[in-house]
Amino acid sequence: MRGLVVRNTGFWYTVKTDDGQLVDSKVKGNFRLKGIRSTNPVAVGDWVHIDINREGTAFITEIEDRKNYIIRKSQNLSKQSHIIAANLDQAMLVITVAHPQTSTTFIDRFLASAEAYSVPVVLVFNKTDLLTDEERHYQDMMVTLYDNIGYPCHQVSALTGDGIDGLRTLLSGKVTLLSGNSGVGKSTLLNLLIPGTEARVADISEAHDTGMHTTTFSEMVPLPDNNGYVVDTPGIKGFGTFNMEPEEITSYFPEIFKFSQDCRFANCTHTHEPGCAVIEAVRNHYIAESRYESYLGMLKDKDESKYREAY
Ligand SMILES: Nc1nc2c(ncn2[C@@H]2O[C@H](COP(=O)(O)OP(=O)(O)OP(=O)(O)O)[C@@H](O)[C@H]2O)c(=O)[nH]1
Ligand SMILES: [Mg+2]
Ligand SMILES: [Zn+2]
Questions:
Q1: Which ligand is nearest to the CA of 276?
Q2: In this structure, which residue's CA is closest to atom 22 in ligand 1?
Q3: pLDDT in tens, 9-23
Q4: Which ligand is the nearest neighbour of the Cα of 191?
Q5: d(CA 171, CA 306)
Q6: What Å distances lie between residue 188 and 71, 134, 193, 289, CA to CA?
Q7: What is the rounded distance in angstroms from the CA atom of residue 216 to the CA atom of residue 279?
Q8: pLDDT band for position 133 (50/70/90)?
Q9: Is the entire prediction scored with pTM above 0.85?
């Protein structure tokens, strides 16, 4: 029987079959994705085939090919990677300039990973009700930066409802991933976007100004009339990137890629080479320093994984 993985808690997956049953399922034995060592061989959003047994639970026997997925490896270079979700039409990366503060490193790594599988990303700046003048100014700069690169930006508040209608119109007919650091308001937004949803939310830690990792499993919540899904996910901390060559990394930063066409050497890594059009563009502020730093950081990941034989 064929179905969609709508929820994942540890070893258990909830599969929604084509005839609408929800079946608790497990992966049989040592069944893993070709070439990738992943903590979750099956992800929310996967289309799978299951064998239902007498107790009413099932084994997942087959995963259909994925259209795309978003994968990360943990920042500490563990050997494992984690597939956040599969078969997405778009991702909403929820960002907060304050309480907690989302770093540009994190944003850029997420964006690059989404570029790798052509998942369109919308940036959602949440908690705008909390911003001081200085923070608002910083947010405006971020919005200008990412808008110019080509990532649509929405400034919202899940508390006041500001900007939420604008987000809701983007969801229709699509599978949308909600991702971001813990405490930025993903579950709060989900509850607002799909009335009737009661995802657990919790205050951030006052002492550390960070989220409490309230959501502990990934779940696809259907839109009214089954007109798409929103995927709520646990907050993520670091976003390690996965097996990327320097020229690939370049191509995942659209504005860096554009300037790289004018580098003197075709195999330029944009780190030190003479005649590098990227370094020149950073110097002239056509490429943001923060984006270039993120690019360099991802190059370094690559070097380290070489020594540590991460995969
Ligand atoms: N002031 C303000 N608080 C918000 C807003 N959105 C969410 N919050 C609060 O932020 C806290 C964290 O929200 P959650 O929705 O649990 O965050 P999350 O991103 O789902 O966190 P994890 O599940 O840990 O990844 C809660 O106390 C929310 O009430 C907002 O727009 N403004
Ligand atoms: Mg949550
Ligand atoms: Zn270059």
A1: 3
A2: 182
A3: 988 999 999 999 999
A4: 1
A5: 40
A6: 24, 25, 9, 32
A7: 41
A8: very high
A9: yes
Gap between the Cα atoms of 259 and 241, Å rounded? 23
Q: Which of 188, 274, 268, 173 is nearest to 232 (CA)?
A: 188
Topology of domain 2-63 in CATH is: OB fold (Dihydrolipoamide Acetyltransferase, E2P) (2.40.50)
Question: Is 118 marked as binding a ligand?
Answer: no
In CATH, what number does 69-232 get?
Answer: 3.40.50.300
Closest residue by CA, ligand 1 atom 7: 185
Q: Which of 2-6, 32-36, 132-136, 242-246 has the lowest mean pLDDT?
A: 32-36
Beta-sheet strands, E only, within 183-271:
218-222, 228-232
Residue 181 among known ligand-binding residues: yes
Asked if 158 contacts 186 with a C-beta cutoff of 8 angstroms, the reply is no
Closest CA to 78 of 249, 300, 304, 294: 304
Assigned superfamily of 246-308: Probable gtpase engc; domain 3 (1.10.40.50)
Is the confidence at residue 306, as pLDDT, over 50?
A: no
Q: 122 and 111 in contact (C-beta within 8 Å)?
A: no
Give, as one character, the DSSP assignment of residue 50: E
Residue spans of the domains in the chain: they are 2-63, 69-232, 246-308
Q: Which ligand is nearest to the CA of 281?
A: 3
Read off the pLDDT of each residue in 235-255 and give the average, rounded to a whole number. 88
**126 labeled part of a ligand binding site:** yes
Whose Cα sits closest to atom 8 in ligand 1? 185
Lining ligand 1 with CB less than 6 A are: 126-127, 129-130, 157-159, 182-188, 201-204, 211-215, 234-235
Give the H or E element holding residue 84. strand 81-86
Task: Report residue 129 as tokens.
Answer: 């009700």
Stretch 106-123: mean pLDDT: 96
